[in-house]
Amino acid sequence: DQQVKQNSPSLSVQEGRISILNCDYTNSMFDYFLWYKKYPAEGPTFLISISSIKDKNEDGRFTVFLNKSAKHLSLHIVPSQPGDSAVYFCAASAGATSGSRLTFGEGTQLTVNP
Amino acid sequence: DVKVTQSSRYLVKRTGEKVFLECVQDMDHENMFWYRQDPGLGLRLIYFSYDVKMKEKGDIPEGYSVSREKKERFSLILESASTNQTSMYLCASSSPQGWYQPQHFGDGTRLSIL
Fold first, then answer.
1. Which domains does chain B have, with CATH numbers?
2. Which of A13, A19, B3, B75 lies 20 to 30 Å from B56, alpha-carbon distance?
3. Average pLDDT of chain B to the nearest whole number
């Protein structure tokens, strides 16, 4: 039962263009969502998050959009840079307990071509 | 910066061996987690702990156990290693203080069971 799903295993974009990574979830109890980035041979690093009371959160080149009715979120990277090439994981949390367990998606490999 | 340190980057063990994976964090975090990462499956939660001597099963606890005798250290134990436990193992920690603190990850241990 995959509660968080990233349907695209890979995405390739040109440097300077927009990268859009998508994530769907099924559990309506999820109320906090995060994106992590992972380079090979390193652990995932936190990128950006959004609470279910918002529909958009921005941090520099990274914006996360949340559509609760569709149970869908997306990560936009503008402009994309070669250093953004990594695996991106979407994660979700249920309940108000900070630091509570996360459910992760399968990941999307982003490749930004110079 | 939060530092989560996993004792080994690479480990090779034999079927049937008892295997210990160690994780130490330096931020006085209450919450600690063990995941395994497999291609196409994302990160799956094995066990987690909210405090010393406390443990909770995650989504795939079978074949594993954990130990948390000190706040900063969380150990994952493979009681009798099997080839299907060959994987990348990731440890994470987080603080329950404040509103939704993200988890911080170590760089992982790539474990091969022969």
1. 4-113 (2.60.40.10)
2. B3
3. 93
Q: Residues B97-103: what's their mean pLDDT?
A: 72
Number of CB pairs, chain A paired with chain B, less than 8 A apart: 68
Q: Is A98 a residue whose pLDDT tops 50? A: no
Strand B109-113 with B10-13, pairing:
parallel
Interchain CB contact of B47 with A (< 8 Å): no
Q: Which of A89, A83, A65, A63 is nearest to A4 (CA)?
A: A89
Contact predicate B18/B81, CB 8 Å? yes
Would you place residue B10 in the very low, low, confident or very high pLDDT band (cuts 50, 70, 90)? very high
Nearest CA-CA distance, residue B21 and chain A, Å: 15
Place of tokens 């367990």: A101
Cβ atoms of B33 and B93 closer than 8 Å: yes
Residue of A nearest to B95 (CA): A99
Domains of chain A: 4-113 (2.60.40.10)
C-alpha R_g of chain B: 13
Query: Which candidate, B85, B5, B76, B92, places its Cα nearest to that of B38?
Result: B85
Residue with tokens 């079927």: B15
